[in-house]
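note to self — DONT lose this again. spent like an hour looking for the file last time. sequence + predicted structure for the chain T wanted, 83 res
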Amino acid sequence: MKNSKFIIDKLAKLFEQGLISSKDLTNELMTILKSKRDEIVFRMKLTSKDEFEVLSKRVEILEKKITQLNKVKKKKIKQVKKS
């Protein structure tokens, strides 16, 4: 219940600030969720702060590669359908 209230409060603040665009809203939600994820990992004390920063950078790089590969895959599928 506490987590849902946190998310609802963050969404309410976003609407108050006038973030109406869906891209702005999704970007803001992603940053909120990432910060919550980082906070949870720190609480669990799975890794040190330095290790966590290195691992988070690696995850970001992998996420970018995945999105790029998905874009290339979609382009190839579209090209095959047009022929």
